[in-house]
Design goal:
Length: 134
Amino acid sequence: MNYSISDVSRIMNLPVSTLRYYDKEGLLPYIERKDSGYRIFKEDDIRMLEIIECFKNTGMSIKEIKHFIELVKQGDISLQQRYELFVERKKTVEKQMQDLQKQLDLIDYKCEYYQKALKAYNQNKHHSDENKSL
């Protein structure tokens, strides 16, 4: 199935300008064009965009993503390198998740702390208001 750039923008929830940028940077090497110059996206292009977004969302630079695309263009000869790249990315994401879990633990602790502080404050305020009415 063929998709227009606006179709892909909607499917991937990406601005058209981002898709054009990725194309300009060589991240979408297999996109075809109509005689009019309009881009024609195929299912494989959408799958490639999903990988690009995964890499980008986990902190990979455009330069590193370009390296991956170059490996893809080399074909099966680069399978080992691509596998190693994904293994390294997995380790990076696992570390990010550990770091985020630590941050979440701290936030949970502070939420509990402030919840208790508010409860104590409201109880003291209530007692103080009762004393004022005496």
